[in-house]
Amino acid sequence: MEHDDAALAQVAFYATLIEWRGPAPFVFAPVPEEHVGEIAHAARSASYGWGVVPVEAQIGRTRFTTSLFPRNGGYLLPVKVAVQRSESIAPGSSVAVLLVVR
């Protein structure tokens, strides 16, 4: 994804995928603490309730849309099964993430 001037926030980070026994899809990329403030600020305009934040994300060559889940003062990026399969990733995998809040 190229830089998008219409984005409310755009961050890039590395994360180790985790498994959490909450709502499906169970696999998440934790957003590093250093980006939480910027995302929370953008979420004031983007969030559509329950604190979830609509985003576009890219892991590897795979782009997808989803919503960040608020968790313990931070955010978790759900990584869909289709993304896990196309990128051959699973819990414990280290991934580079590009995230755009709209």
Automatic annotation (TrEMBL):
UniProt cross-references to Pfam families, sorted A to Z: DUF1905 (PF08922)
Domain of life: Bacteria
Entries under SUPFAM superfamilies matching the protein: AF2212/PG0164-like
Protein name per its UniProtKB record: DUF1905 domain-containing protein
